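Retro notes - structure team

What went well: the batch runner handled both jobs without manual restarts.
What didn't: labels got mixed up in the shared folder, which is why I'm recording both outputs here explicitly, each with its sequence directly above its tokens.

Job 1
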Amino acid sequence: MTHKGQDTNGSRAVGAGVTIVVNDAIRKMFADLVVNGKGGQQNLSKAITAQLATGDTCLHFTAEEFRRVVRYATAYGDGTFQRRLQVIIVQWAAQNFDSLVK
């Protein structure tokens, strides 16, 4: 499914951010996630989970939010949370591959 203004590859700019078409892997990774606490990682997890709960086929991030996704996925060790975020980044890269390698 494409959204208004969306490229055929599934990703589009949203203002100063990005939109990523959610695949089954992303949806499953966040489906049963229980988030406790109030830190940065927890807030990001809650935001992603809330977006997925709407049933939208896309995740929408401002540029700053997506920077946080990348930072948490790469700078804080190698845990389950980081792997979830890495899947989101890989999905974004796959959807934008042609424009990234020009």
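Job 2
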Amino acid sequence: MGPVQLVVSGVLTLLVYTMVLFAIYRIFQISADVKEIKALLLKGAKPNTAEASPSMSSQPMSSQTHVQRPSSPVPPLSSPPPSPEALVRAVHAASYEELTADLDK
């Protein structure tokens, strides 16, 4: 082996070791982030469950007859949504009316 091959081999070895160590460091960093997210989710979930159903924690499970569910945040539609074809026609009619209004001026 020549001296150039020895230098290249040493540099590549150091590069591979550096990449492996960096990968291990990133794995530990990701695991710490996941633990923090888990702790925040668990911390945030506990007060919400107590507020959502205070009667559940004070009564035994056998005495509960009805569980109230929170109402839906989205109100129901009074009529079905228009079809895509109807929407395109409405947009075309509105733009056509704007064009004719601009021409009348």
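One thing worth noting from job 2: The chain has a mean pLDDT of 78.
We'll revisit the folder naming next retro.
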